[in-house]
## 1
Amino acid sequence: MTTILSAPDCATMTEVRAGVDALDRELMALLARRFAYMDAAARIKPERGHVRDEGRKAEVITNARAEAERLGLPGTAIADLWERLVEASIAYELAAFDRRR
């Protein structure tokens, strides 16, 4: 088993890549949790037309950008990622809604 080092402790690209791969696995687990909430939303919302909420979408992206900037990350790049994440979540929720009906 490979020990995962913190980024400042990495001395080789092998160590960096091991850290990135470990984080990617953690991100997938978090995304699975996020998409489970999309399943819940599809179960709770009474109509398919309630799935897309542009106001909420804007709020989520604004929050992501602000948190990214607070952490010293590139806000625009994170906002772009969240745009894609939210759109993927909406598509997933629509499909989940359709499967339930």
Note: The chain has a mean pLDDT of 96.
## 2
Amino acid sequence: MNLNSTLFAQIAVFFVLAWFTMRFVWPPIEKALDERAKKIADGLAAADKAKTDLTLVEKRVGEELKKARESAADARLGAEKQAASIVEDARAEATRIVTAAREAAEVEAAVVVQRAKEDLRSQVAALAVVGAERILRREIDAKAHADLLANLQQELS
């Protein structure tokens, strides 16, 4: 065997094997590698998107919590103001009721005093008539007596 022909045969077999590999074996391997690379890239993109979405959601949650806290603080402040207003209104109403009751009591006391004065005047007038009758030991005319009593009451006022 000749070294040249063996070398030529090996080169021919190498090229046939290279052609067969490039034609039938390499495309499915390259396709599988491309699909795997695409899956990896899609997974990384999805992970990045999920990470971005997570940060956005965390930011929104923080804002919502802040709003909720502010809303709760506003509601509490409004409730405190309303409670203070109700207490103040109740105090004012109680003061008004006490003042009205005091005024009514004063008016009633004035009326009672006036009645007592009138009753006392009547009793004094009756006692004066009885005393005068006893002094004079005789009956006095009732009409004349009524006029005298009215004058006496006016003088006592």
Note: The chain has one domain: 3-156.
## 3
Amino acid sequence: MDKSKMLLVALGQGGGNILDGILSKDKNYNSLFINSSILDISPLKNATINKNVYIYPGSGGSGRDRMKGRNLIEENRNSISETLIKYPQSEVIVILTSMAGGTGSGSLKTFIEITNKTFPNAIINLVAIMPSLSEDELSFKNTLECWNDINEVIDLINDIKFIDNNKRETYNEVNSEAASLLNLSFNIMGTHRDGSIDINDSLRINSAIGSSVILKLHDGMKDGKAALDLAIENSIFAQNNIYECDYLGINIKENSYVVKDLTKSIEVFNSTYVTYNNDFNIIILSGCEMPVEQIELIRIAYDERVNKRASRNKKRGFIVKI
């Protein structure tokens, strides 16, 4: 993808952490951090006030309140649009946000509408972070509402990558791995005698309509099918157990795997792109189905928390006999 024509936008703290990680890998991306709290921005190494940061005026955070996040962006529609106009070269806009929070989750739908109105010809892609199943009722509720918001503007979005926080022990592990894989995905291009992926191929792979998954293959495994199965099992991206996609992008080390072994269990409906490098092994499945199985697990977890709270008998006080 052409980085000069990309704009990466972080809505809220969750998206900001991953965007900061991407910029630590490569500072050549155009970036914008949007938040309701300066405290969320302060720890980030690549977010600079008056350069690539927008803080909602007069706000002190959303407190994980989606309605507050929605109201903040509604009140500042014109200001947000004017900020986006400062990036006139944007042909691909990648939005990063947590689904479980307040600022990012609550503002996502409106931000997509503003972005589409500001850049009607731009491609809008989304990276959405799902909570782990050990989180609380509010996280699940926010996520389900955010999922519904995404579906209300789904026709304005091309590619969606859902990050699954269940796959690692800590948020830092997930954020670090997500930043690394997203950067590799955006840079999947390569030139080789046995196959090349150019900028337009990369754009096609990274912006197919549907959801997508980035898989990193381990070094040293001889069996390509086993390596792919392990990568799928360990992937931090939410996915269904149906390996069908519109486009398949493969950029692997030379002499590492046999491409036919890697692809025999994947149904590709449009095109497969292959190239080689000296440093990493990644595969991207794009134009896949939405991960409805994962959102259904979150809905079940939410119902269980609600029912448990409803059955709780919380005693506040009692009379002591004297």
Note: Residues 210-288 form a domain with the 60s Ribosomal Protein L30; Chain: A; fold (CATH 3.30.1330.150).
## 4
Amino acid sequence: MKELQTYIHSLTPFSDDNWQHLLPALSVQHFRKDEFLLRAGEVCNALFFVSKGYCRAFYDKDGVDINADFFFEQDIATNINSYGRREKSTFSIQACEPLEVVRFDRDLLLAAAAADPQIETLGRLCLQRIAAKQEKHTALFKLMSAQERYEYLEQAYPEMLQRVSLSQLSSFLGIARETLSRIRGRR
């Protein structure tokens, strides 16, 4: 939980009392590679702070996995629409390697936020960070070519290029695996 405490302190001042109010909403969970944190069709009842490993968000389109996002250490994985609106998730979240997360239980987190305004502030800041990441990803596809998207990932997320398979990365970038191989070959 030390990684989580560091993350929280990077967002907002957080006292020992705030931490004690938050603790009941938290649990450490471990997932093996390919295990699901969330399946499409389920309602998302948690935020998952990634401590070790990484996971992916993906949806099925005509029997093909389309990768929508990857969550590495110090990221929060969730389906924000399902979490906030209590709707069924349109995508799944799956461990891509052995994964350790700190799970924020939605109902217990809301109760803690009602009792402690600093926890409510923390929740708002986390959701803002998630929304900003999604907006950045959307801009990649609206403003950049495939080559530019890859170059952006090289600069902003080098760990993604080192850890994610070519097939999953090409799906994330919205290009064929062969196109990604050509782009990498030119670099």
Note: The domain at 2-116 is CATH 2.60.120.10 (Jelly Rolls).
